[in-house]
Write a structure and sequence with these properties.
Layout (H helix, E strand, L loop, with lengths): L4 E7 L2 E3 L17 E3 L7 E7 L2 E3 L6 E3 L5 E7 L2 E3 L7 E5 L2 E6 L2 E3 L4 E3 L9 E5 L2 E4 L3 E6 L5 E5 L2 E4 L10 E4 L2 E4 L2
Parallel strand pairs: 1-4, 2-5, 3-6, 4-7, 5-8, 6-9, 7-10, 8-11, 9-12, 10-13, 11-14, 12-15, 13-16, 14-17, 15-18, 16-19
Length: 180
Amino acid sequence: SIIELSDGHFENCAFTGTGFTGGKYGGHNPKAGVDIEPHVNQVVNNILFLKCRFSGNAGSQFVCSRPSTTSGITLDQCTFEAGRGTSPYQLILNVKALTIKNSTINVGKGSIYPVWGRHAGSDVSIVNCKISGSGKGIVAVSANRANKVRLEGNQMRFTGEKLNTYFPHLQMNNLQFLNN
C-alpha cells in the first residue's frame, strides 16, 4: 500500500502474486499489486510507473479510489495481467489526473473502473493501450458530472466465448471515446 508519497518513480518493477500467502493467513484486502490509499490528512501525488508489471495478484492489479487525496499518477508502458486473480475490479483508477498510456491490459473476467463509487472528481485518460478481457473490459458508469474519462487510440478485444453484456460499458457525462 502507498499511504503517502510525492514525486515517486517506479521503473521496471514487478508487483505480482500479492494475496497468495500459502499459509493459514488468508491475506489482507484488497490483495492488490499496488493499492494507493492515503489516510486522513495525507496525499499521494506525482507518481510515475514506467515499464512496470502488475500480474497475478489475488485481488486487483492496481487500486486507487480517492481523487480528493490522490493526483498526478502516470502508468506508461506497463503490463497488467489478471492471471489467477479473480477480482471483478482488476483496475480501479479513481484519481484526479491519472493517465495510463502505451500499456497492455488483460483484465481476464474483470474490468477497468476509471470512476468509483461515491468519490467524485476522477479525471482518467487511457491512451494507446491494448485492452482485452472476457467481462465488460471497461466500466465507466457515473451520473456525477465531476468525473471525466478519456479513452483514445486504444485497441479493445473481447476474449470470451459469448458477449452477454456491454464491452465496454460506458454510461456517463464527460466521456471522450476517440479513435478506438
